[in-house]
Amino acid sequence: MALADVCGLKTNQLKNSFLSDFGGSSTHLLDDALTSTTNFTVPYGIDPVESLKEFTNPKSDVKIHFDHGTTTLAFKFQHGVIVAVDSRATAGPSIESQTVKKVIEINPYLLGTMAGGAADCAYWERVLARQCRIYELRNKERISVAAASKLLANIVYNYKGMGLSMGTMICGWDKRGPGLYYVDSDGERMSNNIYSVGSGSVYAYGVLDSGYRYDLSVEEAIDLGRRSIYHATHRDAYSGGVVNLYHMKESGWEFISQTDVFDLHYQYKAEKEKK
Amino acid sequence: MSILEYNGAAIIAMKGRDCVAIASDRRFGIQAQTVSTNFQKIFEMGPRLYIGLPGLATDVQTVHQRLQFRLNLYELRENRRIKPKTFLSMVSNLLYERRFGPYFVEPVIAGLDPKTFEPFIASMDLIGCPMVTDDFVVSGTCSEQMYGMCESVWEPNMDPQELFESISQALLNAVDRDAVSGWGGIVHIIEKDQVTTTELKGRMD
């Protein structure tokens, strides 16, 4: 760290005792990401992967059940990235909330989506926001979407096997144009033009794939995103509530609309009957 | 996932003044996937006698068909329409016959006596234990939610319009808190001289 070196601060004091049992650290950048998690309290001398297995083993009595009931989608097109999500949270068959915010505003030009464990997504994307800000201060320029998604992927990879549940899409606009990366708690990180995550993603993909073109207009793209989420909420029991829609432009993201799928259903039905 | 939650359903029956109402959701789903939004769960067993069957969809249809068979024979032998209370015992018997390999349905019965037109509602568990009440009965995956709604909106001696409003609100708001039931609703208001069937406009998510 530049300032730390200038001040003569010894960085090994800041090394995270949680991971020091693994012996030896890796790169500087990774160290940085790791020291941001010094606030996790874990007993000494235990292997976290082994002891946390009980929380992920389906046969165990204490398995933490994460509901992946959700539909989130994002796609790149000529005018940027459209991000659309539903807003339902379920615990088994019971609907706990219809007003969950599944788009996380990392900073004015980066968005992250939430699927899997809500706490995991919200927390780690906030850690990512901190890391992106530090990058900005050090390098006097915005972080690229590729770098931001890689930071997140590398952070969660350290916790692989410990039961984190997160399936997120990092969306932004950088020097290379619109950016969209899929990152999950297994350590997967991929880039493509269209992604949909969650139990309702299969339905969203159907609608998205049949209507997608790179040269859509902004209105057509917004309609496609909204329609895809609606169809997923109609067929998937674990998705529903409202459609929250964002548009990622060169100047940053813009929140477009929040539409109740109840209204969308009868609106689309009326449109069909008019034809 | 429990067998009774595999398909998902919600049924309510309520008693009013000289009338009864029975309502159900319309979803047919296979776990998370919704396959159809016009699945019949309430069956007419007589001009003023209806049975609602929530639970495993295959058993919903089989129990209805076997019950219809028994009821037809009853009406041929007795040469009259069955009373709701007797019908309750008939359903109970059908279910208890399968005590050690039950049908996964928990029926709800609503009707008026064929001679006196007295209102009658009842429900049963999956092995045929009957329960007759004076206010309302609920059955399905969101029974807790339905109990809460019914306790709030039910009052004694409601006329058919008030009863329709109460049962519809109870059903719609209960299924909106259940992921595996809903996708529309249907209500039958059974009075002495007519049966009014209405489809409810509900959330389709």
TrEMBL record, chain A:
Active site: T70
Entry keywords, A to Z: Cytoplasm, Hydrolase, Nucleus, Protease, Proteasome, Threonine protease, Zymogen
One GO CC term, this protein: proteasome core complex
UniProt signal peptide: none
Reaction catalyzed: Cleavage of peptide bonds with very broad specificity
Localization of this protein: Cytoplasm; Nucleus
One GO term (biological process): proteolysis involved in protein catabolic process
Any Pfam family: Proteasome
Domain of life: Eukaryota
Chief location bin: cytoplasm
A molecular-function term among this protein's GO annotations: threonine-type endopeptidase activity
InterPro entries registered for this protein in UniProt: Ntn_hydrolases_N, Pept_T1A_subB, Proteasome_bsu_CS, Proteasome_sua/b, Proteasome_suB-type
PROSITE patterns, sorted: PROTEASOME_BETA_1, PROTEASOME_BETA_2
Self-association and partners: Component of the proteasome complex. The 26S proteasome consists of a 20S proteasome core and two 19S regulatory subunits. The 20S proteasome core is a barrel-shaped complex made of 28 subunits that are arranged in four stacked rings. The two outer rings are each formed by seven alpha subunits, and the two inner rings are formed by seven beta subunits. The proteolytic activity is exerted by three beta-subunits PSMB5, PSMB6 and PSMB7. Directly interacts with POMP. Interacts with ABCB1 and TAP1.
Function: Component of the proteasome, a multicatalytic proteinase complex which is characterized by its ability to cleave peptides with Arg, Phe, Tyr, Leu, and Glu adjacent to the leaving group at neutral or slightly basic pH. The proteasome has an ATP-dependent proteolytic activity.
Family that this chain belongs to: Belongs to the peptidase T1B family.
This protein's name: Proteasome subunit beta
Species of provenance: Magallana gigas (Pacific oyster)
Automatic annotation (TrEMBL), chain B:
Record's protein name: Proteasome subunit beta
Native source species: Magallana gigas (Pacific oyster)
Subcellular localization, as worded in the UniProt entry: Cytoplasm; Nucleus
GO cellular component: cytoplasm; nucleus; proteasome core complex, beta-subunit complex
Subunit structure: Component of the proteasome complex.
Chief place of localization: cytoplasm
Family stated for the protein in its record: Belongs to the peptidase T1B family.
Role description: Component of the proteasome, a multicatalytic proteinase complex which is characterized by its ability to cleave peptides with Arg, Phe, Tyr, Leu, and Glu adjacent to the leaving group at neutral or slightly basic pH. The proteasome has an ATP-dependent proteolytic activity.
InterPro entries associated with the record: Ntn_hydrolases_N, Proteasome_beta_3, Proteasome_bsu_CS, Proteasome_sua/b, Proteasome_suB-type
GO BP of this protein: proteasome-mediated ubiquitin-dependent protein catabolic process
Keywords carried by this UniProt record: Cytoplasm, Nucleus, Proteasome
